[in-house]
Amino acid sequence: MSRGHCILSHGFESGPEAIKVTALADVAARLGWTHERPDFMDLDAKADVSRLGDVPARLQRLIVLATAAVARGPVVLAGSSLGAYISAIASLQVPVAGLFLMVPPTTMGPMPALDAAAVPTSVVHAWHDELIPAAGVIEWARKRSASLLLVNDGHRLNDHVAESAAAFEALLRRL
Hints:
Distance between the termini: 16 Å
Strand order of the largest sheet: 2-1-3-4-5-6
Radius of gyration: 14 Å
Largest sheet: 6 strands, parallel
Shape: globular
Number of helices: 6
Strand content: 15-25%
Order of helices and strands: EHEHHEHEEHEH
Number of strands: 6
């Protein structure tokens, strides 16, 4: 019997087989959680909508998946970058058990500023993120008393995949 379900959302112009979401999927499976990694690549390619593709459609796709999953049991939303942003925003519309956000953007152009439901939340961010300044993420996490891991890395967290997976494991074990 599953402890719950994790929906792992990749970043912009990445994919469901990306290294970070694959590492999170491995953690979820090992701890008895089912998981899925939606493919948003078709929406990311819609440069006619915005330079980040069709973000509202990406968010809506995640909400539909999460709503179906919540009917079966507890759900944790996790994501990297744009995937983190839509996971947090989706949590305002779908009752989730927890959030795991890697390098989340605190602003997203014309979309609402980063916000999330009051659920257990863990954030991993990079001190040297070239796209999303650490200061804004630190303040966002502070206001929510979220767990926050800051690492000596850039936006892709290439050197901290194992540490990110360990932080995800800690969140799942807390739930």
